[in-house]
Amino acid sequence: MTLSQTALPSDRPAPRRIAIIDIARSVALLGMILFHLVFDLAMFGFLPADTAQTGGWPLFSKLVAGSFLGLAGLSLYLAHRGGLRMRPYLNRLARVTAAALLISVATWAAQPDFYVYFGILHSIAVSSVIGLAFLRAPVFLTVAAAIVTFALPGLFDTWGLSVDWPASLGLAQHPQPSMDFEPVFPWLAPFLLGMALGRLGQRTGLWPTLEAPVAGETPLTRLSAWPGRHSLVIYLLHQPVLIGLLQGWVLVFGG
Prior knowledge:
By secondary structure, the protein is mainly α. It has one domain (15-253). The chain has helices at 3-6, 19-43, 57-80, 86-110, 120-130, 139-159, 184-204, 206-211, 219-229, 231-253. α4 runs antiparallel to α5. It starts with a helix and ends with a helix. Keywords: Membrane, Transmembrane, Transmembrane helix.
């Protein structure tokens, strides 16, 4: 028996990054920054106050959030498809959880009536724990769970049911207002679909093919993938940067 055969899951080598997934995450980041720029422009009076809540912007924001959660589910599967690598998993979970708590504290200090008590980072953290139960689940079971997760809030509304605590479940009739709210139901659904996609891609040989070193990888490819490889830092910094730039513009040029 070789050392590799007796290695603990935590000792397994990290899988090779897949550029197309990092690029997809970069595109999602761009969409998020665009939406928050519109929100901030409205907040500073450069656009009508309700711009981000009208037209196609609410749907756009949901698509962006769903893409982040789907990519997070896909990444969880790809990182641990050969066995749970406990140390990297816990390190990543700790980083995401700490970032989520930082967002809660910062938004509570700025706007306590609308602070982020369960936003997208909170949702990714909780989904990453729930997702462990689906690492070895058949695709049909994971997809079925995603469908139930997506449908449950609507069913509760139809039946007149409400689970007020914890609000993070997303099953309350009148949840506490928040500037960013992605509760477990229905937002676990895209995460699970991402995991199902990961398993399908593994079964068809897609991911091993994309992981293979590509001699013709260009600087543009690496540049496009870079934001997606640093998504958590960019997520935390982009709003302070946008608000700081707009505040500076107002101070210099007026509103």
